[in-house]
Structures are given as structure tokens and as C-alpha cells.
Amino acid sequence: MNGADALITTLADNGVTACFANPGTSEMQFVSALDREPRMRSVLCLFEGVATGAADGWGRMTGTPACTLLHLGAGYANGGANLHNARRAATPVVNVIGDHATYHRQYDAPLNSDIAGWAAPNSLWVKSADTPDSVGPMAAEAVRASFGAPGGCASLILPADSAWSETTVKGPVLERPVRVKALSGVVEATAARIRAAKKPVILMGGSTCLDAGVRQAGRLAAAGVRVLTDTFVARLARGAGRFAPDKMMYFGEMALADLEGVDLMVLVETVEPAAFFAYPDRPSLLVPEGCAVTSLCGREADGPAALQALADALGAPESPPVEGLELPGMPGGVFNPYSIGASIARHMPENAIVSDDAVTAGLPVFQSTRTARPHDWLMLTGGAIGQGIPVAIGAAVACPDRKVLSLNGDGAAMYTVQGLWTIAREQLDVTTVVFANHAYRILNIEMGRTGAGNPGPAASKLLDLGNPRIDWVSLAGGLGLPAERVSTPEAFDEAFERAMNQTGPRFIEAAL
Predict the structure, then answer these.
(1) Does 203 fall in a domain?
(2) One domain for residues 27 and 99
(3) Residue 235: band (very low, low, confident or very high) from pLDDT cuts 50, 70, 90
């Protein structure tokens, strides 16, 4: 057994059974060791941002880490944006980052870099296994660290000589951290403050947005307390048979208008809401003037259990109202995200998974599917576009019995378009939709909001994607996907219905 064997065996022993990889020379021992560990599924990604986003998707759906295999510091840097999103989603991920042999570092070869320094901002834990006997124990430690408080990235740096050298040391199987319970005194005090408030609101995030937490949120809503989720959460259980909480609005002034009169904000697995960006003469903190803020529990706690305890303390009904199944009719008229949302609501099967990176087109589809069949919605938690395709890959590998839908703005999709090749290669049951409006439309909106004025000729060039127009059908087809372009509500409805009624990859360009 060499260090690479010890690493992969230890990862598999600790429940890490998927590896999303973009390897290089320093990782060849790891690649070879994959042939000797049948429990580990390896998935090749043609760009590190696809690998890291896929690991995020796997973790969101399983609650356990996948590992990435990245080539030195430059490879980690390429994957950094989607690790930022994973950190904001509190997704457990174990990054294995290859490095030069320990004795080679001193020569400052071209790919030499400060890997630990690059990994630190997005990692709860960063260590380098500089001896072969340290690899296995550190791998076990990395898995446990990824569950953190409440979860996140752990980055293990693997020097080439630690990987190829012999060892007899395999890492242990370590217990995972257990989420803490909200203190009964805090629950009772929070219930008392809610009773005394004129217009209380609960703002929740994290695991409270999964099925168990959403059910308890519905009980609280039935007791007269308004419930909101964070604007973007890692995973939201929604659709018919479930309570549908509102969500914090994206634009700050709209959020504050929506919260007007709120005198108590209770935080559950989240923090005080802030605007995504600063704007001239507009507030950064999205808490109404005169509103008190209290925390029922933090992100390290069992939020669904805390909501249940609060609902019990308030005498909330055990069986609150839920959304009924209401599917729209055949869309017609103008072809836009609302008509597309209607088709998605009509045909999306039960237990589908939606990976949403649709930017300006996303909210209409989200609103249209509120009463669709039960499904999970995965959101852009960190705001770094380019996760829609990769997260769908990870979700599909994790849940091969569920239909996965990837919604993407055309600008966002180009960040990680290489992921289409992985979908084709692995024959994943993913339908990818690209909203092709040939512009960074969100930036046109933000140009005015920041007070930068109307874009002139030079500025417009930086916001336009139409010269030349991206031929999405040719691009997707060249990467191995069956692809089609549609430009009417009726054509999209037919194309989407076909995709939902078959298994395997499909690509639809919605030409808006």
C-alpha cells in the first residue's frame, strides 16, 4: 500500500464514495489507486470549476462529502468560485489537492504556489500530508472536518512523494460531529417575544429548508407567524404537499418594503440579512428600523428541531395547510421565462431536482413551480455564477433515480460549459435549459441601480453577448448532447415534455 492507496481507502471507509476529478502529473498515484478501490466512483471533469461544483451538488443531496481531485494550486484556483458557493451552502466537500514532492518544492518549479494560502479562505480545515504515514489519518480528519459547523470544505494537500511512498498506516473511521440542540430556555424566551410582538417574522436558512424544517415552518405560519427563507438557500423542499415559505427579496429596497412594520426578526440557522451589494444612499443591512433581532439557533444547531420546539411552545397546529397540486395549462402568447416556467411546472416529474443558475430568468420559473409536483430546488448560495451545470452533475450522480433539471443563463452557462461533456460521458439524467437572451441582463439592471448611468457604446460591449451569437445547439451537440433550439411557448412545451418522458441527457436552448 502506498500513500495514495491509504488515502482512497480511508476516504471510502469514511463514506466518501465519489470523486470529481481533473488530475495532473502530481496526482497520477491517486488516479492509479482508483483501480484498486471499487467503492469510489470517479468522474472526469474537463475544468476544475465543474469538479468543485459537482462535489457541491453531491453534498447538497446526500449530506455527505464527495472528494475533488485538483492539480496543484492553479487547479484549486480554477475551482475556487464554486467552492465559494459550496462554502456559502455549508456543503461538506473534501478537496484533495496534489502538490510537488516535498523535496522538489524548494526549487520553485513553474507550478509551485502557496496552495494552503489559496485554499484557506474557502476551507474550514487545510493540512498538508508531508509523510506517507500521515496521509490516511489526515484523510479521516478531513472528512470529519468537512462536517464542521455546520459543514464546509476541508482541503488535504497531497505531495507526490507522500502518494507514491509505501506505508502501512490506514486512517481510522471517525465519528461525525452532531448538531447541537437549541436550549429550552432560548426557545421559551423566543416564544414569549413572538407573543409580545405586533408583527414578528422568522427568517430561516440551512437545514431548516429541507423537508422536516419546512413542515415545522408551516406549523408556525399556521400559528400566525410569517416565515421567510434566505434569498438563496442550498436546498429547498417545495411543491405540492408542502408549506411554501416566502423568501427574502433580492433587491434591498424591495426587501425592506416587504418587511415594513416588522418589529421582531427571529433568525434560525442564518444571520442578519444584508443587501448583496452596496448602492449609493441605500442601506446595507436589511432589518427595518425599530425591529429587534434575536437568534433561535445558529448554523451549528439542529434548526428543524428548534423550529419544532418553538412551534410546540406556541401551540401551533400539528397538521398545517400545505400547497395543493395546481398545474398550469398549455402556455401560449409571448415566449418568456413565465411561459417556460409554466411548461416546467406542467411536466416536471415528482421528486425532480432543480439546479438554478438562471439569473434574471430564475425567479419567474421559481414562482411558476410553487404548486408543481414535489421537488428540491438548489440555489446559487454564493452568487458566483457558473454552478448550474456542475451542481446538476453532482446531484445526478448522487440521485440516479431522480430527474435533474439544470436552469442556466447563457452568460452563466459559459463559465462551466465543459460540464455538458461530463453529462454526456456519464449519461446522466439531466435536462439542461439555457435561457439565451444574448446579454448579461442582470448587469444592465445593476448599471442603473449603482448610479453608473446608461451604458454607452463602450460599456454596452461589456454587457452584450450577441456579437457573435453563441450557437448553443452546435456547442452542446459538439460536447455530445442531443440538443434543440426553441423560440415559442408551444415548441418549448413539447421539447420539455419529451425530455421529461425519457431518461438521459437532453439540452434545450430557449431562444428569448
Answers:
(1) yes
(2) yes
(3) very high
Which ranges of 399-471 would DSSP assign to H, the alpha helix? 410-415, 419-426, 441-449, 457-461
| Distance separating alpha carbons of residues 116 and 132, to the nearest angstrom | 19
- Tell me which H or E stretch contains 293: strand 292-297
Residue 390 located in a structural domain: yes
What pLDDT digit, counting tens, does each position of 84-126 carry?
999 999 999 999 999 999 999 999 999 999 999 999 999 999 9
Q: Tell me which H or E stretch contains 474.
A: helix 472-478
Pair 371, 425 in one domain: yes
Strand ranges, E, within 153-288: 153-159, 200-204, 226-229, 236-238, 246-247, 264-268
Please state which of the ranges 101-115, 229-243, 284-298, 439-453 shows the lowest mean pLDDT: 439-453
Task: Identify whether residues 501 and 361 lie together within a single domain.
Answer: yes
Cell output for 164? 507514491
pTM above 0.85, yes or no: yes
**Do 158 and 194 reside in the same domain of the chain?**
no
Q: How confident is the model at residue 511 (pLDDT cuts 50, 70, 90)?
A: very high
Angle, CA of 298, 237 and 336, to the nearest 5°: 120
Instruction: Read off the CATH number of the domain in which 95 is found.
Output: 3.40.50.970
Residues 350 and 434 in one domain: yes
> By residue range, what is the domain housing residue 75?
3-164
Of 318, 272, 319, 303, which is closest to residue 186 (Cα–Cα)?
A: 303
Among candidate residues 253, 279, 313, the one where a domain is terminated:
313
Using alpha carbons only, give the angle 25, 29, 30 rounded to the nearest 5 degrees: 100
| 178 part of a folded domain | no
Share of the chain above pLDDT 70, in %: 100
Q: What is d(CA 297, CA 320) in angstroms, rounded to the nearest whole number?
A: 23
Greatest CA separation found in the chain? 68
Same domain, yes or no: 108 and 27: yes
Intra-chain end-to-end CA distance of the chain, in Å:
56
φ, ψ of residue 42 in degrees (nearest 5) = -105, 135
Question: What are the DSSP E strand ranges found in 341-424?
Answer: 352-357, 375-378, 404-409
296: helix, strand or coil: strand
In a domain, 158, yes or no: yes
Angle, in degrees to the nearest 10, between helices 489-500 and 337-347: 30
Q: State which of 313, 346, 369 marks the end of a domain.
A: 313
Give DSSP secondary structure letters for 432-443. Answer: EEEEE-SB-HHH
